[in-house]
Specification:
Its cofactor is FAD. The chain is an alpha/beta fold. The chain is built from eight helices and 20 strands. It binds flavin-adenine dinucleotide (FAD) and nicotinamide-adenine-dinucleotide (NAD).
């Protein structure tokens, strides 16, 4: 009997692994606790159009990822975003242009994961709580007490703190995942009925509650008539205000934005907040992916590499490569 491979997590790492295994002719089955794919590359639909609340853009530096992004561009899944970049620090706001190529999903960040998922079999709203091995095969258990399987191998492609418990069959892998500290980010989106009187389209901030501000509307192919903005609090502010109610987070970050942007700020027509509990690893690693190939258990995710979109994709490729290598 040839059992499929289970992949837990449909963020970019899980989808990257799924694509590589599917291309090699193997059967995969995906699981995600959310209602859709994309993980931290998700976008939220709102009355002001779609809003990229997580990853804002991505860069491609590794040759393999550069090639893949070119392929995505040819298919219309991504486009270059060339914002008017600024920086903000104790000296105020100033232009900060550079030559870096930055990519975004079109017409929203989550378009990439939708396209990569394609018709692969997936269970959404399915949070896996246990990964256990029978005599020959793996099985998964979800929060509803339902079992899934049998599977020949399992790839866990969740943030490290969520992977630790699922890796208990391989204590070395579990302890590596447990050593990864992931920091939170509070995100706030604001939509203004009239455009703000500023040229800023992206701004790296220091010495503020915020560390990044983006004019969502300036990204290619975005819908809606509102002037939409996404604000990201710094890790330290987010940690200090982890349990603040959303309304208070919106008020504080709106205040920090008003101070940073330096133009009159009307009341937003729409404002919302989202807390990313495991937004980014505190430091980068060079693991590629974690593997116990004899057991058939693997873990991947941005936390195995650079903590960026590119790292997530490369990590998924590495998990798939290790699995395929073991099967040869
Ligand atoms: P994720 O995208 O987190 O995917 C993991 C998936 O696993 C999720 O869909 C989750 O629902 C699912 N899951 C978790 N536990 C379970 C379970 N028990 N059962 C089933 N499913 C489960 N990167 C950049 O390169 N550029 C940026 O500008 C940028 N900005 C960012 C801003 C923010 C606010 C955040 C949060 C991240 C940002 N990043 C950025 C980082 C980037 O989003 C991540 O590196 C990348 O998306 C991680 O992909 P992943 O597949 O490793 O994990
Ligand atoms: P990048 O090269 O654009 O940015 C890397 C870092 O370099 C920036 O954070 C910024 O500090 C600095 N920088 C780059 N261009 C600048 C400019 N023109 N002016 C001033 N400073 C500039 O992109 P990357 O290396 O792909 O990094 C991805 C981005 O994603 C980073 O900004 C990172 O902070 C962000 N990120 C955020 C989270 C989160 O949870 N908020 C998680 C992961 C990554």
């Amino acid at each position: 009997m040839s059992a499929p491979i289970a992949i837990i997590g449909t963020g970019l790492a899980g989808l990257s692994a799924a694509q590589a295994l599917h291309a090699a002719g193997l059967e995969v089955e995906l699981f995600d606790k959310s209602r859709g794919s994309g993980g931290r590359m998700a976008s939220k639909r709102s009355d002001a159009g779609s809003l990229d609340l997580g990853a804002q853009y991505f860069t491609a530096r590794d040759r393999r990822f550069v090639e893949v992004v070119q392929h995505w561009q040819a298919r219309g899944w991504v486009a270059e975003w060339d914002p008017e970049l600024y920086q903000s620090n104790e000296n105020g706001l100033s232009p900060s242009p550079d030559e870096q190529v930055r990519w975004v999903g079109t017409p929203r960040m989550s378009a990439i994961s939708r396209a990569l998922l394609g018709a692969l079999p997936v269970h959404f709203s399915c949070r896996i709580t246990e990964v256990f091995r029978g005599e020959q095969y793996w099985e998964l258990q979800d929060t509803e007490g339902q079992s899934h399987g049998p599977f020949s191998s399992v790839i866990i492609a969740t943030p490290a703190p969520q992977a630790t418990g699922l890796l208990s069959a391989a204590p070395k892998l579990a302890s590596a995942a447990a050593s990864v500290i992931m920091e939170p980010t509070w995100a706030v989106a604001l939509a203004f009925a009239t455009a703000l009187d500023t040229r800023v389209e992206g701004c790296f901030a220091q010495g503020s509650a915020l560390d990044w501000v983006a004019r969502n509307r300036s990204k290619p192919a975005r819908d809606g008539s509102f002037d939409t903005w996404v604000l990201h609090a710094s890790s330290s502010w987010s940690k200090q205000h982890l349990d603040l109610p959303k309304e208070a987070v919106i008020e504080r970050l709106h205040g920090a934005f008003a101070e940073l942007i330096g133009c009159p700020l009307p009341a937003p027509s729409i404002s919302l907040a989202h807390r990313w509990l495991y937004a980014r690893p505190a430091s980068a690693h060079e693991w590629g992916a974690l593997a116990d190939a004899d057991l058939g258990l693997y873990a991947c995710g941005d936390w195995c590499l650079s903590g960026r979109v590119e790292g997530a994709w490369l990590s998924g490729q590495e998990a798939a490569r290790r699995l395929l290598e073991h099967r040869q």
